[in-house]
Amino acid sequence: MAAAVETLPAPASLQSVDQVEVEDRARLFASRSIKRAAKLWALELAVRCTDLTSLEGADTPGRTATLCAKALRPDPEDEAVPPVAAVCVYPAQVGEAATRLRGSPVRVAAVATGFPSGQMPRELKIAEAAEVARIADEIDMVMDRGAFLSGRYDAVQEEIAQVKAAIGDRHLKVILETGELGGYDQVRHASWLAMAAGADFIKTSTGKIQPAATLPVAVVMLEAIRDYAWSTGRAVGFKAAGGIRTARQAIGYLVAVNETLGDEWLTPERFRLGASSLLNDVLMQRAKERSGAYQSADDFSQA
């Protein structure tokens, strides 16, 4: 299957990451204090940018239906709360999700290409992605970390490009699984490989291993997106996923995106938070900012 792959600098010519600077910037973003009006805006943006996710072996059509209801009306008691960006499920649940979300602004996202390990033959990965893309709006594929870690960078790029070609106009999010890559330089290199191969988004992790998303890793990926946009003129989105459980963490990612990439990336078209438990904490913090009183987690439905 023919697929376009951009020319990429050799690994040695990619800019090395300054670990101290990256971690200092991440601490600054995490500790940034914002005023009440800005915080309310940020919390609502976090809702709008959420990929509400369930990726468990126990997922059923009923559980997916509940997830979709939560995605459409995150807080049934408050119609002002916007719907989330997408619902992200396994391929087996895509049909149910599409039925429940038909006609709504919430997109259907599905993991593919042998999630979470990616350890299956390439032709099966491509076939799975193409089949799921018949229904889903977005495909979250896993990068071949085995090929990357063994230095077969051309193979990594070719596979991503072939999956992108197979899914047509569907959005492709490439999961780097940064916790397995070995360091910031490798994260930057993997980010460039994925973007040059045609990724619409680069995503931190599957959420199935630790460490998952971390703010320093996000800074590295965001800076790669910035530099790639400067070099090519193409804007690539960013998705943080795995281990993001609190509104405070979510706001830290929003600050990092804003200060690294600018306002143009503060939209569901270019930024996502992959989460399951995060949404209710964001809703609790939003209610607290509006009323001055904390609500119980029991006041919000469980997806």
How would you portray this structure in words?
The protein is globular. It has one domain (16-292): Aldolase class I (TIM Barrel), CATH 3.20.20.70. The protein is built from 11 helices and 8 strands. With 303 residues, the chain is α/β, with parallel strands linked by helices. The termini are far apart. The chain has helices at 19-31, 36-48, 61-72, 94-101, 122-132, 145-149, 153-167, 184-196, 215-232, 247-261, 278-291, and strands at residues 50-53, 86-89, 107-112, 138-142, 171-175, 201-203, 237-241, 271-275.
Concise summary:
By secondary structure, the chain is α/β, with parallel strands linked by helices. The chain has eleven helices and eight strands. An eight-stranded parallel β-barrel has the order 1-2-3-4-5-6-7-8, surrounded by eight helices.
- Element string (H = helix, E = strand): HHEHEHEHEHHEHEHEHEH
Distance, first to last CA: 39 Å
User: β content, as a range?
Assistant: 5-15%
**What Rg is obtained from the alpha carbons, in whole angstroms?**
19 Å
* CATH homologous superfamily title: Aldolase class I
CATH classification class = Alpha Beta
Q: Would you count the extended β strands for me?
A: 8
Class of secondary structure makeup? alpha/beta
Strand order of the largest sheet: 1-2-3-4-5-6-7-8
**How much helicity do the residues have?**
40-55%
How many structural domains can be distinguished in the coordinates?
Answer: 1
| Main sheet characteristics | 8 strands, parallel, barrel
What number is the mean pLDDT? 93
**Contiguous uncertain segments of 5+ residues:** none
Quote the CATH topology.
TIM Barrel
Number of helices, counting only DSSP H or I runs of 4 residues or more: 11
| CATH architectural group | Alpha-Beta Barrel
Give the overall shape, derived from the CA principal axes: globular
